[in-house]
Amino acid sequence: MIRPFTMLRISVIVVLSVVGVQLTSAADEKKLADLVELVVEAIDVNAAEARKLINRIEDLEGYNPDLLAAYAAFYRGELEYSLSNWSEASQQYSRAIEFYRNVNDTARLSAAYNNLGLVKYYQGDFDESIENFSQSLKLELEINNSYGIAQCYQNMAIVFSHGEQFAKSLDLYQKALDVYLKEQEWEEVASVYNNIAAVYAEYGQLDEAAANYEKALEYYRRERNNAMEARVLSNIGSLKMRQEKYDEAGRILERALVINKAEGDRFAEVNTYSMLGDNYAKKGEYLQSIYLYKKAEGLAVQYEMKELLLNLLNSEYLVYKQIEQYDSALVNFERYIALRDKMLKDNPDYAKGVMDMELERQIKERDHRIKKAIMRERLFWSLIILVSVSAVIAFASAYQRRRRLLQQKNVEELKKELMKEKCNPDLMLSSLKNVKQCIEVGDSERAVDQLDMIARHIEQVLKFSGQELIPLSMEIDYLRSFLRVQDQMLGKPIEHRIESNVMQNAGAILVPSMISQPFLENALADIMAFRSQDKIKFDIAFMRRGNALEVIIEDNGAEGNCHYACKSLEEKYRNMGIAVSFSHIYKGKGLKNRPTDFGYIRSEERYDGKVKTGHRVCFNLPLMMQ
User: Which intervals hold domain Signal transduction histidine kinase internal region (predicted)?
Assistant: First the structure.
């Protein structure tokens, strides 16, 4: 809370013990200075008598008429100011300024500008307020009145703060503070620190606000100004409530309450009770809040503090409504309306303040309704989002499940096709025909040897064809068996050499079962390629290259058109890679289908000079270890 600024007046606030006729007779006998002193005293205790005394100023003899007119206008402005009649006060101060200019009274002219600035501030005309404070500051600088200069800075800072020009406000407060520190005006120093803290609090920099409140508290304690110490404690308590430190706020406000009671400051006592009630309401302890509001209400009624009572009735109404005690809420609301209307009727000058309070009450109710509406809206949208997310998850899950089932189906069909190709029934039929021919020509021994060889080969085919991966050592054994069967079928000897730089680990390295068979079958299908050769040769190598296993197959088919990379061979090879990749996915060994892990087929024809000597095919497999 920003401390109300001090007016530049020449006054001594004393309770007037003489009123009525005694004042009138005294005024007839005294000179201007004495009469002014009586006017100052009367303004605070008896407005009617003050008005009569001000009229007598203009009737004094032996003085400059402009000086008397200036005094009369100035103190009429003071009287209207004390009654909050801002429009009339503004007119009287403006008249005083004109007359003080004529008599060249710089000090009182500065005071008139300052007070006019205050009135313009209360009227909400901030530009005019700053203009008048600037004029007052200019005059104070001329007469080098340090105290007056500091007060002008302080008043201007308050106006800028109200206009939310916080940087400018803080700059002016700092200038006022520098002057007060230099002049050792410690209470004014404390006041400036209090106001700076209020600016930081308004700006949302709560830590800076707390630090400046503590400085204000330090100076007020040094000066033993208990009343202002309690006011700063109340401000700190309000700050703690903003920080939602309700327990700490409660302790600070209770200290302020004890000081207010000791000082007999009833207004501050009622206000502190009200703040404690607000603190407990924010904590959700509504019964304790109502108890404190009732304590404050009793004092407000006793000492006729109508504005505070109006605010308390509004607070009680909101708390009763919060705890759904609607009968009590209605009673307080009706009392609030009745008191508001009475205050407006008795004193129209309170209209703006009362209407502001009414607007604040309406805003609080609106905010409460908005808060409830927002909570319902958030709950509604949360449900919608929850249902939507659940539906999306269910849809995505169903889609993924359907996709996985389709993939599994496709892979199973692919596996069946691959198994059929691996079994190669044409090869079996051709082998059996050779056995039949041997039997027909009476070469039973050869027929038995062929049957034994075919039986072992069929056993290996049945063993390996249903598996996706087998050790490299078994793949090599299978290749040798396959080539022996082909040797018997073709009637030409087949020489083969199988090499590997990982032969010692061949039992731990996995390869797709019967992966090399399609390439050998592709080469042997073109028998014309070996027509000019006495024997058929195959060189087969399994070489580790980093994280890949390179497979190399070479033959000596010098004639014919043996294309290892033909379309059907590439499709069979790719299908085998897809099948193995999907199997890894289903077994949790992979995150996605990666058929490209099976490297591309690279084939070429081999030459010795310009003479064709055979074919070569190379491809890479991912290095898989068991």
Answer: 417-489
Identify which of 269, 225, 238, 581 has the alpha carbon closest to the alpha carbon of residue 411.
581
Low pLDDT (below 70) residues in the chain: 1-30, 347-369, 407-431, 434, 446, 450, 464-466, 491, 527-528, 531-532, 561-563, 565, 567-568, 574-599
Range of the domain at 495: 424-625
Helix, strand, coil share (%) of the chain residues, nearest 5 = 75, 10, 20
Pick from 587, 491, 501, 589: which is nearest to 541 by CA? 501
Separation of alpha carbons 43 and 54, rounded Å: 10
In this structure, how many other beta carbons lie within 10 angstroms of the beta carbon of residue 474? Answer: 19
> Residue 126 gets which letter from DSSP?
H
Please give the Cα distance from 300 to 557 (Å, whole number): 117
**CA-to-CA distance for 399 and 405, rounded, in angstroms?**
10
- Which residue bears the tokens 């009476």? 442
Question: What's the total number of domains in the chain?
Answer: 1
Closest Cα to residue 212, out of 232, 194, 238, 187? 194
Question: In this structure, are residues 538 and 480 in contact, taking their beta carbons and an 8 Å threshold?
Answer: no
Torsion of CA 238, 203, 190, 8, to 10 degrees: -110
What pLDDT, on a 0 to 100 scale, did the predictor assign at position 3? 45
Q: Is residue 513 part of a domain?
A: yes
CB 536 within 8 Å of CB 493: yes
Report how far residue 478's alpha carbon sits from residue 513's, in angstroms, rounded to the nearest whole number: 9
Q: Which long-range contacts (CB under 8 A, 24 or more apart) does 203-210 make?
A: 203/166, 206/239, 206/242, 206/243, 209/239, 210/236, 210/239
How would DSSP label each residue in 197-230? HHHHHHHT-HHHHHHHHHHHHHHHHHTT-HHHHH
Q: What is the reported pLDDT for 195?
A: 92
* pTM for the predicted model, two decimal places: 0.53
Residues 280-338: tens digit of each pLDDT: 999 889 999 999 999 999 998 988 888 888 888 888 888 998 888 888 888 888 888 88
Please state, in angstroms and rounded to a whole number, the distance separating the CA atoms of residues 318 and 313. Answer: 9
Q: Could you please report the per-residue DSSP string of 154-185?
A: HHHHHHHHHTT-HHHHHHHHHHHHHHHHHHT-
Establish if 489 belongs to a structural domain.
yes
Residue type, 210: A
Q: Confirm whether 372 is domain-assigned.
A: no
> Which residue, 510, 525, 606, is CA-closest to 568?
525
- 264 contacts: CB under 8 Å, gap ≥ 6: none
Q: At 540, which CATH number?
A: 3.30.565.10
Instruction: For residue 620, tell me if it sits in a domain.
Output: yes
For residue 470, give the 3-state DSSP assignment: strand
For the record, the structure tokens of 190 come out as 């404390």
* Residue 596 DSSP label: G
Task: Decide if 115 contacts 93 (C-beta within 8 A).
Answer: yes
